[in-house]
Amino acid sequence: MFTHDQFQSNQDKTFYATYDSSQPPLELTLVEVSDKKELGGGFESFSVIFKAGKDKGLMPQQTCAVKNDNCGAHDIFIVPVAEKDDCYLYESVFSYKVGN
């Protein structure tokens, strides 16, 4: 799993999401990393926002392989959350038990 520190150190960097094996990976830019939030019971969470140009089309909500040259590749669940004039925004939320 990607870590909060990995995302923070790669903000404004490029990630690639493979969601359809018949298409080239979608180029995403990491534009926001939230602060970590305590959820109680020893759990915490954070979220990240990616953007992608509208010229590549809308990626549907799904689990996909996401890769970054500095962080490696992991499967994450990505949800489209907004449409801007020139891009779509996507969010991933991570929740986990602290210490695991």
Account of the 3D structure:
- The chain has 100 residues and is mainly beta.
- It has one domain.
- It is 6% helix and 58% strand.
- It has one helix and seven strands.
- It has one helix at 4-9; strands spanning 14-18, 26-33, 37-40, 43-53, 62-68, 72-83, 87-97.
- Strands 1-2-4-7-6-5 form a six-stranded antiparallel beta barrel.
- Strand 5 (62-68) and strand 6 (72-83) form a beta hairpin.
- It is globular and about 40 Å long.
- The model has no long low-confidence stretch (mean pLDDT 94).
Can I get a quick summary?
This protein has 100 residues and is mainly beta. 6% of the residues lie in helices and 58% in strands. It has one domain (4-97).
Topology:
Elements: H1 4-9, E1 14-18, E2 26-33, E3 37-40, E4 43-53, E5 62-68, E6 72-83, E7 87-97
Chain-averaged pLDDT: 94
Distance separating the two termini: 11 Å
Name the quaternary structure: single chain
Number of helices: 1
**Class inferred from helices and paired strands:** mainly beta
* Domain module count: 1
CA-atom Rg in angstroms? 14 Å
Strand content is over 45%
**Major beta sheet summary:** 6 strands, antiparallel, barrel
Which strands sit side by side, in order, in the main sheet?
1-2-4-7-6-5
> What is the helix/strand order?
HEEEEEEE
Shape: globular
Work out the helicity level. under 10%
Flag low-confidence runs.
none
**Total number of strands:** 7
